[in-house]
Amino acid sequence: MHPPAERGSGGTVHAGAGGHPGSHHRLARRGRNTVPSYILPFEKPILDLEKKLEDLRAFSQAQNIDVSLEIERMQNKITDMRREVYQNLGAWDKVLVARHPQRPYMLDYLAAMTTDFTELHGDRLHADDRAILGGFAWLDDRRVMFIGTQKGRDTKGNLERNFGCAYPEGYRKALRLMRLAAKFKTPIVTLIDTPGAYPGIESEERHIAEAIAVNLREMFRLPVPIVVTIIGEGGSGGALGIGVGDRVLILQYAYYSVISPEGCAAILWKNRSYADRAAEALKLTAPDLLKAGLVDEVLPEPPGGAHADPAAMTATLREALFRNLAELDKVPVDELLRRRYDKFRAMGVFGEEEAPPKSSDESAEVESEQA
Questions:
Q1: What is the tens place of the pLDDT at every residue in 187-202?
Q2: How far apart are the first and last CA of the chain?
Q3: Among 105, 234, 124, 139, which residue's Cα sits nearest to residue 179?
Q4: Would you identify the CATH topology of the domain 96-345?
């Protein structure tokens, strides 16, 4: 066991392919002024300026001419434009940011803010689902059980991780690890980034609904602090299966929804191209969720999203986890369980009021329409 001073600098992560431990280093090395390889539609004006900046730098080096003032002005212009664009994103735009393929995933955050993460495998019933992973790690001087969903960064990784869509054995593995954490009185942190649980016939055969339902029931009973963080996509029951906690945090451009915007559009308008309208109607963005009381805190992302500055996003996430765990440490177990239950029990509660009596003019209008 390391002394506390040696922990927390980021380092040892043991993981398989598809969530490569070194991927966070590649993300961190991508500078703010480097032209990104994946562009969202609303980022094209920013891309044009970044290309001009690269051309200006190349010209300066080739001609040995000092254009540092012009470079600085263009950098400031890019920064201002990025901030303005990201401050005015619509709901669908935020969904696209949450799905950005260069966005940090669970293993990226673990490699950057924890040490000695050792992945634990299997549900002891059927298989080891690679879409959900978990294990003990040191967050500075405290041991934490981290559990979360993991996507791949390439075709091979996505096939191994099933695009972040877990099977029933993934949720049963998560529950096994949560019970293990409770046994050793270790707090639990879950990091969620999934389009949803896998909906195929294999999941139905192995009872995906039962696996998620059991997780919901059992997470209310775990006598240790639980902090949930939605770091990207929070897709329906697939997210909720590891989403019951004392504190629910969400990154600024992440989303949490009962259905994907495309799925909602296909049902309501019989056309997935209406996904942008569905996203607005679903109220799935972080501010909407905070207003509705479905999340407790929104973690600000750097201008350009978490993928634009992974190091800054990691620092924000780490501070939030420390702060919330420290606050929950002070709550007695009985009170912790009561608050957790009451918190989720109150969700979805609404009141009904009797409609005011109709005026004579309105009644006459209704009668004429019926006639």
A1: 999 999 999 998 999 9
A2: 83
A3: 124
A4: 2-enoyl-CoA Hydratase; Chain A, domain 1 (3.90.226)
